[in-house]
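pipeline stage [seq->struct] | target=TRAP transporter, substrate binding protein, DctP family | organism=Arcobacter defluvii | residues=355
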Amino acid sequence: MKKIFVKLSFLFVCLSLITSLQADDKVYKLTMATTWTDTTSPLIDAAKNMAKLANDMSNGRLVIKVDAANKHKSPFGVLDMVKAGQYDMGHTASYYWKGKDINTLPFTSMPFGLTSPEQYAWFYYGGGLDLMQKVYAKHGILSFPGGSTGVQMGGWFRKEINSLDDLKGLKMRIPGFAGEIMAKLGVQVTNNAPGELYMSLERGTIDALEWVGPSMDISMGFHKIAPFYYTGWHEPASEMQFIINTKKFEKLPADLKEILLVAIRVSAYDMYIQNYDMNATAWQKMKADYPDIKVKTFPKPVMDAMKKANQELRVQMSKESPLLKEVLDSQDAYMKKVREWTKMSDYLYLKDNLE
């Protein structure tokens, strides 16, 4: 009887080891939809780099198939598709969902808010990531920082903006909370998909547009049509996002969960520094090839009106959503803490050393 028990125990151990080895060798396949087309670099690069990192670090056990917007044909349907399980993951931007859930808005960028280094610090060390999960939990989704474009430019304009009157009736593509501010100042705001922007500007369907910065604007060709290039105010830290269907994530083994999260974090930061270099390189070419481009800042009365509208809208929306107020209060508190250091370090260094 004892011999039989030993043999059975040995068999059980062997079967357990075989099962364990088989489990370790199992390939998990995920699908990811992006808001970006195949040519929208570096946004699409972040998604593809993340998928490659996950595959490489897992030794091929985690395979992520990336579908660009020109394949799935629904650039602004990414949240719904991941929520419904049509795709397991998405790479997009949180502020696109403000019409579905206003609480998602601050996780991309807020006008006159945190810069990219400040916002990354808030996400990972100031409670921002926990708040993001709290907001997306009701959608059955996990959300993580997906790469920052840094300070975005204020946009390309066909005509110079000299006063508030120049904004009234202006047709402009500008998404997110900044669009709400511009609408409050009399701008006719649209949110055209990326692939439609050049044609809309060329045909006069819109008079101005905000996209990103030199890195991505150069390939779009806006500078060939609209010569006035305004500096930023509305998106000082435009963070993309990786979203994951929670049920799908929970089905992954623990090591692949960790690999996925590491791949997300590395590819997000890499997009930030890649874009920084691309901005510098593209701007050198743009100003050399198109010397008539005029870099402008909005006049002080316009900026003051933007700040006033920004504050009024924040107060209004915070009253309507306690959760949004919680997120905004968290960002404000963190900015009060971190901005003093930003001023002591980056600001004063640049102020004292710029020619």
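stage status: PASS
auto-comment: The chain has a mean pLDDT of 92. Residues 132 and 289 are 42 Å apart (CA to CA).
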